[in-house]
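User: ok so my PI wants both of these folded by tonight, can you help

Assistant: No problem, let's get them done. Here's the first:
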Amino acid sequence: MQQYNVTGMSCAACSSRVEKVVSAVPDVQSVSVSLLTNSMVVEGGSSAEIVKAVEEAGYGASLKGSEAQKSSLVDEAAFEDKETPKMKKRLIASLVLLIPLMYVSMGHMMWDWPVPTFFHGNHVAMGIYQMLLSGLIMVINQKFFINGLKGVIHKAPNMDTLVAMGSGASFIWSTYALFAMTGAQMRGDTHMVMTYMHEFYFESAAMILTLITVGKMLEAHSKGKTTDALKSLMQLAPKKATVIRDGAEVEMPVDQVKKGDIFVVRPGESIPVDGRVIEGHSAVNESALTGESIPVDKEEGDTVSAATMNQSGFLRCGATRVGEDTTLSQIIQMVSDAAATKAPIAKVADRVSGVFVPVVILIAVITIMIWLIAGQDVGFALARGISVLVISCPCALGLATPVAIMVGNGRGAKKGVLFKTAVSLEEAGKVDVIALDKTGTITSGEPKVTDIYPASGYSEEDLMRTAYALEQKSEHPLARAIVDYAEEHQMKESPAGDFKAVAGNGLSGTIRGHEAAAGNRKFIENYALLSDSVRIQAENCAKEGKTPLFFAYNGKLVGMIAVADVIKEDSPQAVKELQNMGIRVVMLTGDNQRTADAIGNQVGVDEVIAGVLPDGKESVIRELSKYGKTAMVGDGINDAPALTRADIGVAIGAGTDVAIDAADVVLMKNSLRDVPAAIRLSREVLKNIHENLFWAFFYNLIGIPLAAGLWYPIFGWKLNPMFGAAAMSLSSFCVVTNALRLNFVDMYSTKKDKKKKYKKEIRKKEVMEMEKTVNIKGMMCPHCEATVKKALEGLDGIETAVVSHESGTAVITLSKEVAEETIRATIEEKDFEYVSMK
C-alpha cells in the first residue's frame, strides 16, 4: 500500500475523478482519495503508471515517503496550511476592487449614491468602469477558470467549472449588453439604453468570485484546524538529544541518534527516542502519548518513549527505536493513515459527487431554456441559470465525511485512543457483542497477594517470613507474587536450605534447622493438620477466584496466603458502561469454570466462557459473530488471531507489537474504560457525519429549485446569483465547522449513552455428547490446570476439558471414545498422577 500527494483538487468531483482514473490502472486493487488531506492511498499497481494517470486527468501526483521523510517523523510540512495565506491575498485584492464596483453598480443605481460628474448621464462610461473592475477581479481569481477549463478538457467538470461558467456567463452577457447599449446610445434610443443598463451583471460576475473565495478561505482555515491534533503531536517530538560518544556527552539532532546509542535525560527534558533505562530512576509524564496526566515511575530495565517528559531524576538510557519507529512516530502515522482512508458511509456521497457537476450544468441549461420558452427575457433566464450553477455545492458532500473522521481521530489520539482506519472509526460504534480477554485486560495480568490468614499462634509477619524464605528459590508465577509482596514491605529473610520443588504440588526445605513446606491443600496435609475453619476459608477463597497457598513449619500450619490475578480498579465500571450502551459483554479465559465465574461475577459481565485455550479464542469469536457485530479486546500475542477474526479488534495497554498489528483500534493506556470511550467517540463521529451529509444534501435539495426559480410563479421568489454564491460559500464552511465540534466531545461522559434492550442469552450452550470426569493428583494452581487442559484437548476425540486444581478433576467432553490408557499416559507425561475416570 502506497500513499501519494495529489494537487489540483478543488471539490468532491475532483477526488471522485482521480479515484476513477487510478482504479482503471492495471493491477490496482483499491484506491482511496482524501480531499481533506489532498492525499491518496493505493494498493497495487505501478507508481509511475498511477502518477501518469492522475496527470493525464488534469491533476498532479507524487509518491509520499522520500528517504528524507523516512529518517524523521511524519512530514510536518504535509499538514501545513498553505492555502489560507494565498486565498487571503486574493481576497484582499478582490475586495479592494469590488467595493468601488459595488458602490457604482448597486449604491448609485439603486440608492442614488453620489458619483463623479463624468458618470452623470454617461451610461457607457459607467458600463466600461464596471467591466474593467470585474475583469480585473476575474484575472485575480483566474484559478477558478484555469481549473474549470481543465476539468472540461478532461471530461471531468468540477466545482471550479460551475463557478467559472456562472461568473463567465454573467461577464459575457454583460459585455454584450454594454456593446448593445453603446449602439443604442449612438442611435439616440434612450429606452433601449435604459433596458440594456439593467441587463448588467458585472457586479454578479465579480461578487460570485469574491464570495466563493471567502468561502474557500474559511473552509481552508477550518480544514487546517482539523489537523491541529496531529500537528500538536508532531510538535511534541524533541529536536535535540544528548548522546554519549567516546565517553563524553554530545548534543545532536534527534534524527542522528542511532539504535543502540546511549543517551541521557535530565529533569525537565523530553525523552528524544524510545529506549530502555540503563541507570537512574525518575517519574515520567506520558500524557503526550496516553492522555494520562499522572507520572509513571521509571527505573532500571523499564522502557521510555519519545516525547514523554522526564520530571524528577537523571536517566541514562539505551536507544531501542529511533526515527519513524518510535511510538510517537507510529501514532502520528496511524492517525495520518486513518485520515487518508475512506469510511463506508462516504461511498454514498462519492457516487453523487461523481455525477453532480454534469447534472447541475444540465439543470442550469434546462432552466434557461424553460424560462425563455415561458416568455421571460434573456437576462432573467440567464440569471436563473447562473444562480443554479453558483449555488450548487459538491464540496459540502465531499467534506462531510473526511473532516469528521480527521477531527474524531485527532480527538481520540489526544486521549490515547487510536483508530487505524476510517472504517474502524465508523464501525466501532456499531458493536453488539464485546469479548474481553481476562488476563491483562480485565485483570492486571500479574498474580498478587490478596489475603493473608495466619494460623492461631502466628502473626502475619511470621507467616510472610516463612513464605518468603521458601518461595525465594521457586520459579513459579505464584511464588513471584509472594516474593514481590515481601520485598515491597522490605522484609529480609534468608532462603530456605535443602530446597526441593515437587512439580504440581509444592515446595519443601529447612528454615533455622526445622522442616518447612508450602503448597496446595493436599500437599500440605502431609506436613500439618488443617482445621475445618481453615478448609472453609480456603474454599471461600477458591470461590472468589483466588488460589490458596498453605505454609507449614516444624509440623504446624503457619497459615494461608491467597494469591490472585487482581481485577483492575476500573474494569467493573467499564463493563457497566458497555452494558448501558446496549452491548453484551463476554469474558474469555483459560481458567476453570469456577474461577472464571468468580471473576465474572465480580466484574459483572453477561457471560463467562471458561477453559478457552489461546488458539481457541478465534473459534469463539467466530461463534459470537453470528449474533451481531463483535469486538475482541486483548493485549497479547496469543490474542492476535481473535483480534483479526473479530469485526473490530482492540489492543489494550499498547499491547504487544503483534497484537497492535492485528488490531483495528489501539488503546495506549491500560484502562478498560477506554473501550467504551472509543465506542462513544465512534458514535459521536458517525452522528456528526450524518448531520453533515444531511446538511449537504438538504442544502442542494432546497437551494437548486429556489435558484432555478421554481417558486417564482407561485410566491414570486427569485434568487440573485450573488446570494447563490454566498450560500455556496457558507455550505462547506458550515460542514467543516460542525465537524470541529467533535473537539469538545467528552469521551468518558455517560450522559448521552443510549440504552437498548438486548437478549440475555445470545449464545446457547451446546448439549454435550459424552462427558467423563478424570481424577488427577498434583495440580496446584491455574498454570497446572492450563498444562493438563492443553494436553487433554490435544488428544483426538476430546473436544473440551474443564480442569480444576481445587477439586483435582478434569471434566472432558468426548466426540468419540478415547482409551483410558491414552488419557492416563497423557496426564502422567506432564508429571501429574492419574487416579481414576468415571
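One down. Here's the second:
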Amino acid sequence: MKQLTLPVTGMTCANCVAAVERNLKKLDGVQTAVVNLSSERASVEFDPVKLGLADLITRVEYVGYGIATGEADLVIKRLADDNDARRLEGALRKLEGVLEATVTYTTEKARVKYVPTIVSQAEFRRTVAAAGFEALELGGDAQDAEAAAREREINTQRRLLITGLLFTVPLFALSMGRDFGLLPAFLYAPVQGMVGMRETQPWFNWLLLALALPVQFYVGWQYYIGAAKALRNRSANMDVLIAMGTSAAFFYSLPITFGWLSGHVYYETAAVIITLIKLGKFLEARAKGRTSEAIKKLMGLRAKTARVVRDGAELEVPVDDVRVGDVVLVRPGEKIAVDGAVIEGRSTVDESMLTGESLPVEKKPGDAVIGATLNKLGLLKFEATKVGRETALAQIIRLVEEAQASKAPIQKLADAVSAVFVPAVIVLATLTFLGWYFFGPALPINADINAFTRALVNMVAVLVIACPCAMGLATPTAVMVGTGKGAELGILFRTSEALERAGRVNVVVLDKTGTITKGQPAVTDVVTDGELPADELLWLAASVERGSEHPLGEAIWAEATRRGLALAEPQGFAAEAGHGVEAEVEGHRVAVGNLRMMTARGYALNGLQPAVERLQGEAKTAMLAAVDGTVRGVIAVADTVKDGSAEAIAELRRMGLRVVMLTGDNQRTADAIARQVGVDSVLAEVLPGDKAAHVKALQIADSRLRMANRKLQIANPKSQIRNRKSVVAMVGDGVNDAPALAQADVGLAIGTGTDVAMAAAAVTLISGDLRGVARAITLSRKTLRTIKQNLFWAFFYNVILIPAAALGYLNPMLAAGAMAFSSVFVVSNSLRLRGQRVGGW
C-alpha cells in the first residue's frame, strides 16, 4: 500500500468532505481515504498496482473539486542536445507527484507542474544532478506553491465580497428607503385617482433587479456550481441550501418586476444573503489559514544555506545540496543546517524551537545536533548524518501534518449528522412553506404581503439559517491548532485520536529506567574514613577503573573526569568477576569492589559498616575502596533521578491522575526511587516481556484486577475500584517498552529513547523531559474542551434557530448573517488555543 496527501480546493462544508471521501473510496484499490476540511487535504492509502496519482486527481476533479498544484522553473546547464532534454524530461516525469514536465533545449529551461504535498523542488534538483546536469535556478519553494493556491482562493473570495458589497449596499438602502418611505422625491410617482398617495416609479423595481443581477449570478455563481456538483454526486451541501433560498427570493420577484403579478419584490433579501455568507466565508478562510501557522512556523525554522567543507575548501551551498557525510561548519549565532554529529568544537545550542526546553544544551565531540536549532557560543564542525526528508525537523512536520489529516473519534457524531443534515433541512423548509401557506394565521385585510409570500419568506429563512459548516469545522480546526501548539512545545501527536484520548487519561504508568531516572549509573556519594580526602579516594578508584568496562566502573571514572581529576595509568590490572577490580596506582595497591571482595581478602571495614548499610538502604550500590590493604572509603553508585521527574509526577498527581511506576528492579530499589519521586504505586520485578500484560491489567476494572493488584503489591488498591475502564497512558523509552506503549490507550515515548519505542507510541516527547507528559495531557484536555464547545455551539445554534426560523421569528437576512458567522465563531474559538498556557508555557 502507498499513502499520498492531496491538497484539495473548493470544499466549503462537511458535505463536501463526505462527497470527496465517498468518491475516492469508490475507486478500486483505495483502502482508506480521510479528508480534512480545516487543512483542506485528503490522505489516501491505495494499492499502487491498481491506481496512480492521476486516477486520484481525476476522481477529485470529477466530483467537482480541484487539486492545488505548483509550477517550478529551472534553468538547466550542460544540455548537449535535444536528446538530453528528452532524457531529463523523462526523469522528472518519473518522480511521484510530478504532473507535467517540459524541458526545452533551445532555452535551457525546465518547467515542472507538481503536487506540493508529494514532491519538493529539492527533489527536482537532485534528479537533475543525478541525470548529469545542473539546475541553477528555482522559482519559489514547495510550501509556497500550496500557500499560493490557498491565497488565490482567499483573494477570489475578497474580490467577490467587494463586488457583492458594491451592489448590495445601495440595493439594501433603496429597498429599506422604499419600505419606510424615505426615498428622494424623484423616485416616487403619484397614484392616479388617490390624492396625496404616491408609489415608487414604474422603473424602480427594474433598478433593483439591475443591482441584484450581478450579486445573484456573479458573486453567487459558485453556489450554483457547488449545488450542481453536489446533486450530480447524489448529495446535498450548504451550496444547495443557499442556491435554493436565494433563488426562491430572486425568481419570485421577477414576475412582479415584469408586471405579471402584483406585490413586493425581495431582491435585497437574495443579495444580502449571498453577500453576508460571502463575508462569513472570507473571514472563515482567513481564520482557517491561521490554524496552520504552527506548521508554517516550523517550516520557517529551516536554514536556507549551509557552509560545507569539500576538497579542503569552505563552500556555502543551499541546504538541499548538503549530502550525508558532508562536514558542515556552524559559527556562533548561525542555524544548524541539517542533523549530524559533532566532530570538532564545543558550544551550547538553543533547541527550544523543537524541544520546547528553554535552556541551551551543551555540545561536544560525539554529541548529536539537530537541524534548524541555533548555535549560541562556539564554532562547531559536524558531520551530516540526515538530510532532506530524513531530518528531525522534516519528520516532525510530517508527523504533525499526518495528525492534522486524521479524524478524531469525537468527529464521528458530526459526520453522521452532516450526512443527513441538508436533506432534513430541505424537508423542514418544504414543511414550513406548506404549514404557513395552508395553516398559517389569517393575514390582516390591509397586509402588504399575501399568504404565499409569507410562507416563502419563512421557507427561505429556514434554508439559509441552517449551517452544516460549523459542524464540519468544529473538530478539525481545534485538532489543527492543538497539534500545532503541541509541536511548539516539543509534543508530537501521531494522530488526532491520540490527542483526544490523552485528555481522558486517568492512570499514568512510568517506566523507571530512562524515563524517571537517567538510565546511566552515576556516583551519588563518596564517604571516606576521615584520613583520605574524598577527591583522592575517587582519583585512586577511578584510576583503577580506567581499565574496566563494567557500567559501575565507568560511572566512577566518569565522575572523576567531571571533577577534573587527571587519572593515573594503572599497572597490573586484574578483574574478579562478581567481586571487583584491583591494580597498582603510583605505588599503591588499590582494590575497588563489593563487600564480598573485602571479606574474602580479610580487609576490615574500618568503621564504614554503618555507611554501607545506609547507602544500601537507599537502593544504591556501595563500592568499597581499599588502599594498601585498608578500606579507606565507600563510593555509592546509583541510577539517579532525572531533573524534573519529581516535579513532573507531583504535577500529574495535582491533575488528579494516578501515577504507577513500572520497573524490572528489585522491590527495595524500586521503593527507594518511588519515595524520592512520590508515585502512588509500584510494580517491581517486572520482566520486560510482561510489561504489556501489566498495562493491560490496569486497563481492566473488576474484582479480578483488584486481586491481581494485591498479588502485584500495588499500593493503595482501593484506588483501583471504579465503575469504568481506566484510560491508561504508558511512558517509556526503550525497545522493551514498545509492546507496553502499543498496549496502552495512549503511549508516550521519550524523544531521547529508541526509534522502536517512538514508532510504537502515539505521542512523542522530543525533549525527553518527563514534565512533557503533564503538558501533553493538559493540552489534550484543553483541545478536547474546545472541540466540545465547538460542537455544542454548532448543534445548539441549529437546534434553536432552525425551529425559530420555521416559526417565523427570523427575517431571512438576519438568518443569513447568523449562519455566516456561526462557522467564524467555531474557527475563532479554536484559535484561542494558540494563546493558552500549557504547563507554564
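Residues 138-143, 702-723 have pLDDT under 50 and may be disordered. The first strand starts at residue 2 and ends at 9. Good luck tonight!
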